[in-house]
Amino acid sequence: MPKSLKKSYKSKASNDIYETYLSYCDNRDIDVQKTRKFHKRRKPKTHHKNFFVMFFATVLLGLYSYYICPYNYENYFKPLILNHILNSKIKFDVNDYAFYTEKYINNSYFLDRYMLVTNESNSKQLADIKIVNKMDSTKQKLLNLFKQYPGLKPSVFVWEYSTSSGFEIDADEIYPSASIIKIPIAFELIRLIDRSANTDNPIKLSDKRLYTDFFKTIGSGDLQYRQEDVYYTLDYLAGIMIANSDNSATNMILYEIGGMDSFNRAMRLLGLKVTSMGQWLADIEGQNKITAREISKILYNIDNPNYINPKYKSILKEYLGNTKNVHLIKEKLPTDVMVLHKTGNIGEMLGDSGVVYSENGKKYIVTILVKRPKNDYRAKLLIQDASLIIYNDIKNLL
After folding, report:
1. Is position 86 within any domain?
2. Are 202 and 196 in contact (CB under 8 A)?
C-alpha cells in the first residue's frame, strides 16, 4: 500500500477515535448536567426544612431569654452571686434583724430568746378574781398561826364564789411550782383539744402517744418503771399526771402541747406574768415558777367558757378530783368535803391549790404555798391548820 494511502487511513482512523471520544465526553457532560439539574431541583426542599428548624430554634431561644433568663437572674444569680459580691463588705448580724426587740420590751420567750409577738386574734386574757368582801378576821387568824412556824414563808390566796369574799397574803410572791405546775399544763391541754376540734387533724383525749425513754424521768409516778415503747391515751396520761403526780406522763403531755416554750407563750397570752417553766420534770431545782394568785386564777377560769368548753371542763375537774395526796388542804376537813386540787412538793417548797366544796354548799378557791428549809415537815402542819381555819370561817359566811 502506498505510504500516502497509509497516512490517509491512519488519519481517518484517528479522527474517528477522536470523534468517538468527543462524543463520549459530550454525553458525559450531558449526564453530569442532568445530575446537577436533579440536585438543583432537590435543594429548595432542603432550604425549606432548614427554615422551619431555624424558626423554632429562634422561638425557643426567645422564650428562654424572655422567661427563663430573668427568673434565673432574679432568683438565683442576683441573690446568690451578684448581691454577695456587691455587699461583701457589709457586716450583717441576722440576730439583730430577726430579734430586734430582744433588748427591749417583750411578751414572749421562745428558744432561749425574748421576743415581741402579736396576740392571737381569738385570745383573751384570763378573767381576774375580784375580792369584794375582805375576810380580814380570817387573814389575821392565819397571820397569828404563821408566827407559830418561824422560818417558814407562806403565800395564800382565798376566794369564795357566792359572796366574792376572800383575802390574800403575799399572793404575788414568786414560788417554785413543784407539781402544781401540772394544773396549767392540764388546762392548756384541754384548750388545745378544744381549739383543734374543728380542724382537719383534731386532737382527742382518746388519741394514743408512744411512751419512750425520752420522756422517762425520776420523781413521783410509776410510769418511769414501766415498759417502754407502749402506747397510752392522752386521757390516761393526763389522769395520772394529776392523780399520781406522774412526772413522766407530764413530760408526754408537755410535749403534746408544744414543750416549755409553747407553754410559756400560752401563759403570757393568757395574761399570766409569772407562771412559767424553765425545766422539764422532774424540776428538783425549782426552776418552774408560779404565784398563789395566778394559779388561783387558772382554777377560777376552768368555769369560764371563753377558755374551757363546758363539755371539757367536767373532764378537767374529774382529773383534779382524783388527786391521791389528800394530806394537805383536805387532811383536817370533814371526810365528805370534796376538794378538786393538786399538790406540789420539792425540798424548798410545799403547796396545795384547789377548789373546796363545803358541807353547806359553799364553794371557794384556796391556794397555800410555803417556802421552807429543805424538807421541813412543819410546812405540812401549817397548810393543814390554815386550811381548817379557812374552811370553818367560810362555812359560816352569810
Report:
1. yes
2. yes
User: pLDDT tens-digit profile of 176-220?
Assistant: 999 999 999 999 999 989 888 888 888 899 999 999 999 999 888
CA angle at 292 for the pair 140 and 340, rounded to the nearest 5°: 100
Same domain, 155 and 258: yes
As given in the structure block, the three cell numbers for residue 171 are 399572793
User: Does 381 reside within a domain?
Assistant: yes
- Looking at per-residue pLDDT, the higher value among 180 and 120 belongs to 180
Residue listed under C-alpha cell 381555819: 389
Residues 84 and 184 in one domain: no
The predicted model scores a pTM of 0.70
What's the pLDDT at 202?
Answer: 87
Q: What are the phi and psi torsion angles at 108 (to 5°)?
A: -150, 155
Total of domains in the chain: 2
Q: At CA 220, angle to CA 214 and CA 222, rounded to 5?
A: 70
Do residues 79 and 183 both lie within one domain? no
- What is the distance between the alpha carbons of residues 365 and 307, in angstroms, rounded to a whole number? 18
Q: Does residue 97 sit within a domain?
A: no
Give the C-alpha separation, 349 to 374, whole Å. Answer: 8
pLDDT at 26 over 70: no
Question: Which domain covers residue 75, as residue numbers?
Answer: 14-90
Which of 291, 59, 72, 75 shows the shortest CA–CA distance to 174?
291
Using an 8 Å Cβ cutoff, are 191 and 221 in contact? Answer: no
Tell me, what's the pLDDT at 3? 46
Whether the CB-CB separation of 370 and 394 falls below 8 Å is answered with: no
359 lies in the same domain as 278: yes
